[in-house]
Every structure is written in C-alpha cells, then in structure tokens.
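User: quick one, sequence for these tokens?
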C-alpha cells in the first residue's frame, strides 16, 4: 500500500543508490523470497556475491528455490536473525535492506550488526516505509498505526533514519509519497 503504485520505481532507485560495481559482495538483510536478487546480481555481475539473510523458514525456502531455478552460483541464503547475522565481521562491500528493518524487533541492533558486517568504507541502503510526514496525509497516521500494529509486522513509528545516523553519522535520505517511503544511504567510516 505504501508504495502507491510506485514499487518498481522505488526498488530500482534504492538498488541504484547502492552504486554497486562488478565483483562486490552484498549482504541483503530480510531478503524475503529474494525478489531483489536479480537486480543485485545484475549490478555485481558473475564475480560478485550476494548473501541474503532472513529469519523466516518459509521465506528462506522460497528464496533458495528461486536461486535453484535460476541456477545462480553466486547468490546464497542463510536463515538467521538480522540482529546477529551469521556472517563474518567487516567482510561486505555493501548492505541492502528493503522493507525489512521496520519489521525487525530492535532495528537499532540490526543496524549495528550491519555496520559490523561492512568493511571499512562499505555502504548501506535502506528502502522502507514510515508514517506520513506531510500534511494533510499525516491525518491518516492515527488510523494507520493501530492497523499496522494489529494486522502486520510493520512498526511504522520506528525512526530508521535517526538509528542510521546514530550508527553511521551522515545519512543521505530521499523521501517519496508524502514522506512515507524513504531511501536512506550511509557509509561506514574508513577507520
Ligand atoms: C516485508 S518483508 C520484505 C522482504 C523483501 N526484502 C522485500 O523487499 O520484499 C520483511 C522480511 O523481513 C524478515 N525479517 C523480519 N524480522 C527479521 C529478523 N529479525 N531477522 C531477519 N529477517 C527478518 C521477514 O521474515 C520478511 O521476510
């Protein structure tokens, strides 16, 4: 719903913002069924690597099924928690999280784990939904919040940009749809 018909556009923009180059390694947090794998793979090429992490057995099963059907050798899926992903520290060039951090319990911790998994200078892009930020759309927020709480895993009140700032410092943010969709990009320091 939050995409208001512009899902393809936002997903494309988010992956473009990652600015991947051939041969890079990308960690995707909350990869779901792997619907970003194809685009990520196009960006890193056959010499790059994609590691998708998801906590759900059903999602990881579907994602592995997709990899098998496509015959991708450089895409891997691990079942695990975004708050302590089963990957080595400082090993990934980039990390990507699409519509997943707002569904994670304790996203601050997940963001800290992303920072740990990145190599110095590595970057992260987050595509996610939040409450409307602009009048008159903000009038809908009191209606959306209880629906989200009772019927979905989405926690719209979470301030992902503030959490990213606390961990990474500078964050570039672009918002769409009256502020309800954000694409945020940050970089781990080189030290
Ligand atoms: C709304 S789906 C988004 C899936 C995919 N990234 C996309 O863009 O379509 C959110 C995903 O986050 C996963 N997730 C939620 N909490 C998680 C956690 N603590 N660790 C890892 N994955 C988690 C869910 O299993 C689900 O697949």
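Assistant:
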């Amino acid at each position: 719903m939050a995409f208001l018909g512009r899902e393809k556009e936002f997903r494309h923009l988010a992956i473009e913002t990652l600015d991947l180059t051939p041969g890079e390694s990308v960690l995707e947090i909350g990869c779901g069924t792997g619907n970003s794998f194809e685009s990520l793979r196009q960006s890193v090429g056959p010499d790059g690597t994609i590691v998708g992490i998801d906590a759900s057995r059903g999602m990881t099963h579907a994602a592995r099924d997709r990899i098998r059907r496509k015959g991708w050798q450089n895409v891997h899926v691990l079942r695990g928690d975004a708050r302590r992903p089963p990957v080595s520290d400082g090993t990934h060039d980039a990390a990507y999280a699409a519509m997943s951090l707002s569904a994670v319990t304790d996203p601050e911790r997940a963001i800290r784990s992303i920072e740990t998994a990145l190599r110095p200078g590595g970057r992260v892009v987050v595509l996610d939904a939040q409450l409307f930020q602009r009048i008159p759309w903000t009038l809908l927020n009191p209606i959306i919040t209880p629906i989200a709480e009772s019927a979905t895993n989405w926690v719209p009140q979470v301030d992902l940009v503030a959490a990213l700032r606390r961990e990474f410092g500078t964050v570039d943010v672009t918002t769409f749809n009256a502020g309800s969709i954000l694409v945020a990009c940050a970089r781990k320091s080189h030290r």
